[in-house]
Amino acid sequence: MSVNSPNRSFSILKYRLWTAISALCMVFVLIGCGPKWQLSPPAAPPPAVVADSGMVVAAHPLAAEAGIAVLKQGGNAVDAALAALFMLNVVEPHASGLGGGGFALVRTAAGDAKVVVYRERAPRDVDTSIYYNPLDSLRKLRGGGTAVCVPGAPAGWAELYSRWGTLPLGYLAGFAIRAADEGFPVDPTLARQIKDYYQLLSTDTLLAKVFLKDGLPYEVGDTLRQPLLANTLQMLAANGLGSFYRGPIAESVVEAAYRGGGSLSLEDLEFYRCDVVEPLSGKYKDYEVLTVPPPSGGGAALLETLQLYERVSAHYNPASRPAATHIMAQCLQQAYADADAFIADPDVTKFDPAGYFSGDRLAKAAQGINLKAKPAGRTPVSPPPVLGSRQSGNTTHLVVVDRWGNAVSLTQSINYFFGAGILAGSTGLLLNNQMADFSTPLDSVNLLGPRRRPRSNMTPLIVLKDGKPMLVIGTPGGGRIVAATAQLAVNILDFGMDISAAVDAPRFFPMREHLVLENRQAKKEMKALANFG
Question: Are 431 and 98 a contacting pair, CB within 8 Å?
């Protein structure tokens, strides 16, 4: 069923649907050795944005404006998401785009939910031996052509459009094409990233031509034009997004990776397909949680965190924020350990949700999580065996809800800022360095291999109450994505915060034996957490 053909209208206000992207700005304060004063008193959060006929939340205002224009034109949530994604490739090229990949969680107004998995894949002829040289500091995983995986975004966007798109692709891409061709004002985030990566950009002629102005970083307010990217987007809009994988664009991508020492081939691009799968789903109290399955480890870790938290938090005063933080941090530790040990590309390491989230396994995983437990590493709790199983940086998030109640929660990335540091010839596209998301221990289930997909932390989330969406969220942030998303969900579902207050609340993140806090935490809460150990 097309997502713009629901049986009834939808009111965001009526069903209390909140949408948000959370910016992750962690400041390292370690419990036990942190400051004895509050460094940055928290200011009152801004009022929540409310709408009754649709909403687009993106990491750049021009992307949100493109999505809103599509909604006003009668497009649905997927149409608006695609327009915003095209625009993000122009205005936020250092973080995401067609040279990368991601996960899109779509729930239609009719109640159908699917995940489009467009995670990148390693090349078929990858030589794994070159990546684990102790003298190399793993540079080949992190930069240059050796770091490039097959981009999945074009296939993922094409799948979204073919399944649910209603407006002409040229119209959806048109906002971004104009911004790339005519230019847009550089915002503080992009200006800062260009300055931070000036050495990388200045030593590559193609990168310097696009991201430097007369050899110097762009300043805030300068106009940045990307005519090569505009031409590429125009070609894709005219010939279809699938044309990325063959012809001149594919040849430019392969040549750029090859020049950087990579093994990416034209056959790798032609082979690539995205997957359309069922969401990972489970219960949290009276809510139904929808998120993304492997090769994201983020969805499994989030769902395990919430279900462990529900089990353990029933035994203490839920109104105590320090106690809630201490318990949540331990739940996150356990969920991270389990995902790291057991989640990988499902083509290689089979995943059984029923076993992973079984009551017996969760009960075992919850052992030792209590108010008296000290921050420490946790032993992974094995799920039941699956017959036939084998074991071997920087992102953007987008939320769209339309007037009918169709919802999209989508996370994608090129991994580190500016990805592999490679511009694909005349395309204007930055290529990913997702090789860096494979694990380095040689006994890891997430080990690099031919055509494998690396595990991801991406965690798009939709929460339902009585069968209706009431929370649609996600966030960038790499390894902190799960922690931030879990805290947002609990702040809203348990503590009754509105979306603005939940996003603005100080965050925490477990890191080995430490609990990392933003320095906006109240002094009394820091003291209480220190008393927990």
Answer: no
| Chain centroid to CA 476 | 5
Edge-to-edge strands, sheet with 113-118 = 55-57, 395-401, 407-413, 101-107, 113-118, 275-277
| pTM > 0.85 | yes
Q: CA-to-CA distance for 126 and 268, rounded, in angstroms?
A: 11
Q: Are 122 and 295 in contact (CB under 8 A)?
A: no
Sequence length of the chain is 533
pLDDT score at 317: 66
DSSP single-letter state for residue 463? E
- Model confidence over 246-257: pLDDT tens digits? 999 999 999 999
Active-site residue identified among 291, 395, 396, 475: 395
Please list the alpha-helical segments (H only) found in 100-152.
Answer: 139-142
Amino acid at 72: K
pLDDT at 190 over 60: yes
- Quote the CA–CA distance of 68 and 225 in Å, as a whole number: 23
Known catalytic residue: 349? no
pLDDT at 379: 76
Distance CA 58, CA 485 (A): 16
Residue 337 class from Cβ within 10 Å (0-12 exposed, 13-18 middle, 19+ buried)? middle
Q: How far apart are the first and last CA of the chain?
A: 53
